[in-house]
Amino acid sequence: MADTIIALSSGAMPSGVAVVRVSGPRSGALTEALIGALPDPRHATLRVLRDSAGAEIDRGLVLWFPGPASFTGEDCAEFHVHGGRAVVDRLLAVAVEHEGVRLAEPGEFSRRAFVNGKLDLVEAEALSDLILAETEAQRRFAVEQATGAQSQLYANWRERLLTARAMIEAEIDFSDEEDVPGSVSDEVWADVSSLVAEIDQHIASSDRGRILRSGFDVALVGAPNAGKSTLLNVLAGSERAIVSAEPGTTRDIVEARLDLDGYLVTIADTAGLRETDGLVEAEGVRRARLRAGQADLVLHVSETGAFNDLSLGDGRTIWRVRTKTDLVRGDADGDADFALSSVSGSGVDDLVGAIRSEVGRRAGQTDTLAPGRARHIELLRTGRTYLIDSLSERLPLELRAEALRLAADTLGRITGRIDVEEMLGAVFSRFCVGK
Ligand SMILES: Nc1nc2c(c(=O)[nH]1)N(C=O)[C@@H](CNc1ccc(C(=O)N[C@@H](CCC(=O)O)C(=O)O)cc1)CN2
Ligand SMILES: Nc1nc2c(ncn2[C@@H]2O[C@H](COP(=O)(O)OP(=O)(O)OP(=O)(O)O)[C@@H](O)[C@H]2O)c(=O)[nH]1
Ligand SMILES: [Mg+2]
């Protein structure tokens, strides 16, 4: 018999109400022990909760969800009690005195929902993203995936591959017979080719998915004293980083998270780039370069208007930002894209506006499907290589069919649904009646 698990499912206490959730075969017995008779299924019912000696723990709403019609698919119950630490501690302590009842591990309710077929892996991951979402774009991206849109796409691809494989297997088995025309396999391979193109397009949107899910990454880099930390503070609207007239102030990366039009944007302030004998500062410079090399957007900050080459390699978007325009200077703005003063504030809005539109452009529509997790992208890439194998005309048909199977399995791993019965169904449903 599976353990019955219990945990606080609502947020930090103290809070108005705390929701304690229980799932597993002893849920009903535990609920009866706490409140007497079980309430009607799925009806919020006000009850007194008592310990085994009959002392009142609290008074709260109780919900009973007999399985399989519950979040986890098991018998579940919820206790909506007052959100005090001692209330919840006492309730949990009384619950785990019961045989077969223990505290839940992180993610264990969702894990059970997955095991019982209530959620697939993509949906379960999306629920976790939904809980972590801080901005509107993150929320919409997570909701889309949590409601199965992405899963459906992968399921359809997988279905096509299972069909393709069944056709090729049939061709292998009945190649001497006349009822399987050769053109069938041409159609199959044409469809596999177009699937490769669809997967490529989907993988190409992974930058978008990453930006929507994890946020858009901006790095402030440049010479010491250029005004990077001051600019970070202005963008963040608070004194995040230490500012001083001494060059080499910043060593660690200091981040500020902004919500621009619903998109999460992380601004990273970094150590000023220079040759240095200081070990700590040199490490800071190394980290600054590393961060800049991975950023979606690099703001190259300079107080002089001179911008030496950052040598960050290809593919980085770099904007040149001249700072301290409030100070009178001989030279002009040079070839800066933006000129601003963090002290007077002039030019700051232009920069923020430009970041805003850059993020919007690079994130695209929030409601179009894009893979946002490394796990998905990796499996998509692996699946694609199997498909390329399957298209190789130099290989015997048996191996090409096997490559289709591996590709289908790989796609099945994204949603966690790889199951042999389905494959058998796809194969046998295409046999002629009586064969
Ligand atoms: N109080 C409470 N609020 C909550 C949750 C919860 O567990 N408890 N949720 C937790 O994540 C979310 C809602 N998700 C849920 C998903 C499925 C079922 C459920 O009972 N499913 C059954 C019956 C479906 C039906 O009747 O329509 C099923 O799938 O068979 C409940 C909540 C957000 N709000
Ligand atoms: N007048 C004026 N001074 C500024 C401006 N921005 C920064 N400063 C000053 O320039 C000095 C250096 O600023 P920081 O923001 O610490 O420079 P940084 O680029 O972070 O420097 P490191 O961390 O050493 O790389 C400080 O004295 C700031 O007050 C500005 O827009 N106008
Ligand atoms: Mg600094």
Quick structural overview:
The chain has 14 helices and 12 strands. It is α/β, with parallel strands linked by helices and 435 residues long. The chain folds into 3 domains: 4-104, Probable tRNA modification gtpase trme, domain 1 (Gyrase A, domain 2), CATH 3.30.1360; 134-205 and 371-419, Up-down Bundle (Four Helix Bundle (Hemerythrin (Met), subunit A)); 212-363, P-loop containing nucleotide triphosphate hydrolases (Rossmann fold, 3-Layer(aba) Sandwich), CATH 3.40.50.
SSE inventory with pairings:
Elements: E1 4-8, E2 15-23, H1 27-35, E3 45-50, E4 56-65, E5 76-83, H2 85-96, E6 101-103, H3 108-115, H4 121-132, H5 136-146, H6 149-173, H7 183-204, H8 206-214, E7 216-222, H9 228-236, E8 254-260, E9 263-269, H10 279-294, E10 297-302, E11 318-322, E12 338-339, H11 348-363, H12 374-390, H13 397-415, H14 420-428
Parallel strand pairs: 1-6, 7-9, 7-10, 10-11, 11-12
Antiparallel strand pairs: 1-2, 2-5, 3-4, 4-5, 8-9
Helix pairs in contact: 4-5, 5-8, 6-7, 6-13, 6-14, 7-12, 12-13
The structure holds ligand FFO, guanosine-5'-triphosphate and magnesium ion.
Folded structure, characterized:
By secondary structure, the protein is an alpha/beta fold. It folds into 3 domains: 4-104, Gyrase A, domain 2, CATH 3.30.1360; 134-205 and 371-419, Four Helix Bundle (Hemerythrin (Met), subunit A) (Up-down Bundle), CATH 1.20.120; 212-363, Rossmann fold. It has helices at 27-35, 85-96, 108-115, 121-132, 136-146, 149-173, 183-204, 206-214, 228-236, 279-294, 348-363, 374-390, 397-415, 420-428; strands at 4-8, 15-23, 45-50, 56-65, 76-83, 101-103, 216-222, 254-260, 263-269, 297-302, 318-322, 338-339. A hairpin with a 5-residue loop joins β3 and β4 (56-65). The protein is flat, with a radius of gyration of 29 Å. The model is unreliable at 430-435 (pLDDT under 50). Residues 228-229, 241, 249-250, 269 line the site of magnesium ion.
